[in-house]
Amino acid sequence: MTDRLTEYRRKRDPRRTPEPVPAEAVAPSGNDDTFVVQEHHARALHWDFRLERNGVLVSWAVPKGLPPDPADNHLAVHTEDHPLDYANFSGAIPAGEYGGGSVSIWDSGHYELEKWTDREVKVVLHGHRVEGRFALIHTKGKNWIMHRMDGPARPDWVPPPQVISPMLAVLSELPPPAQQAQWAFETKWDGARAIVFVDGGRARIMSRNDRDVTASYPELRALAESLGTTQAVLDGEIVAFGTNGLPSFSRLQRRMHVTNPAEARRLAASDPVVYVIFDLLHLDGRPTLELSYTQRRKRLESLDLNGDSWQTPRNFMGSGAELLRASREQGLEGILAKRLESRYRPGRRSPDWRKIKNIRTQEVVVAGWRPGAGRRAGTIGSLLLGIPDRAGLRYVGSVGTGFTQSILDDLLQRLTRSERKTSPFAEELPRADSRDARWVTPRLVGEVAFAEWTPDGRLRHPSWRGLRPDKAPSDVVRESCGVVRES
């Protein structure tokens, strides 16, 4: 009798692993109708799909799990046959052993066979979690694709969007006390906005200006793995905390430019980030954009997303004044007020979301620089800043403080590469501001802290906070705090 478990035994030592390891060839038994799906947290999360066939479990590793939608085929990698006893196995395979990690039974049941050849397998699954017709189609080598042949897992299933722009808040003051019961209040985090798409235990992280920054934050891989087969689109902010426990935008700056995977892993250990989650935009085939803030928040909290590198901070109902006072005492940037009945409006700046700041900040476009003198000789003395409006790029002043030498060196290198001969501003600058100016193509976005706006539209006492690679010049608007009228 051919021993179909030779390869299985070769890879395992029964003295080192709790997996079933039959001592010799096993005669075929059973009805050839059992299936099992095991969630396997090994070096990379995957789901092992196994079908009973001629006395063994024919097996495929499916990195993203069984496809819930016929429009989405999933890779399935053919692996060695497993013994029938493996259909009941769950537990921990020791580190260092083949397949080291935790194994749990995700679903099991029986199947009806429609076709089985070396090129194609068609089955109908009847499990606790999965019902439907599936095909496994051989493509090349060990690689197959898994295709759902009938309709989606649910009739109302809607695939998640590939890109979604975050909803934005207006700068304002607290809603009137008599109306605050209609609002929820959240801490405002001094970080970088990010939409995280989770599918099949994998995360795709998109910045506010639709850049894929997944490689920059490897510690968030575990967030996706913790969700297993749950499909979700999350809205939140990537935050770096300083040694004082407060958000540190300067520390976050070290992470925002990194695309090299090895460098990102090194920085994840020395300068870790936390993904602060505050909204849920899609969940398991159901869009949530048209739900109220209260409904979305309830669904988000049901996911219990709290780990070493991600958290869902609580929100506060009723009085925003107390949270604003506490944030001021702790040195935080401010708070957000969100109307309980508000829908999520992608890409829109809506008065249904309001930011109330303790620290005034403004995003700006770098349009040029003036050379330094004295200790700054040979480098940047100040940056010339603008904000786009309908007439073009409008000058809002210069900034010459808040820089370290390493920041100046980096900025000089970046700006030298984009120099131009003419001013990019829509208006002519005063001679005192433009003398010796070196103009650049206005691509870089930065952020400054400042005291107030002057009557002629200039930033008073600005201080440089850092570049914002997560934003484009078209994202920059002037923020003027005022009371938003209630309708």
Structure description:
The protein is mainly beta and 487 residues long. The protein has three domains: 6-148, no CATH class; 168-357, D-amino Acid Aminotransferase, Chain A, domain 1 (2-Layer Sandwich); 361-475, Nucleic acid-binding proteins (OB fold (Dihydrolipoamide Acetyltransferase, E2P), Beta Barrel), CATH 2.40.50. 13% of the residues lie in helices and 38% in strands. It contains eight helices and 30 strands. The strands form five sheets. The chain has an eight-stranded antiparallel beta barrel. Strands 22, 23, 24, 25, 26, 27 and 30 form a seven-stranded antiparallel beta sheet that branches. It is elongated. 34% of the residues are buried. The mean pLDDT is 93.
Spell out the blueprint of helices and strands.
Elements: H1 6-10, E1 34-41, E2 45-53, E3 56-62, E4 74-78, E5 82-83, E6 91-93, E7 101-116, E8 120-127, E9 131-140, E10 143-148, E11 168-171, E12 183-188, E13 192-199, E14 202-207, H2 221-226, E15 232-240, H3 249-256, H4 261-270, E16 273-283, E17 286-287, H5 293-302, E18 310-311, E19 316-317, H6 320-329, E20 334-339, E21 349-357, E22 361-371, E23 380-389, E24 392-399, H7 405-416, E25 419-420, H8 431-434, E26 438-440, E27 445-449, E28 452-453, E29 459-460, E30 463-467
Parallel strand pairs: 11-21, 16-18
Antiparallel strand pairs: 1-2, 1-7, 2-3, 3-4, 3-5, 4-10, 6-7, 7-8, 8-9, 9-10, 12-19, 12-20, 13-14, 13-15, 15-16, 16-17, 20-21, 22-23, 22-26, 22-27, 23-24, 25-26, 27-30, 28-29
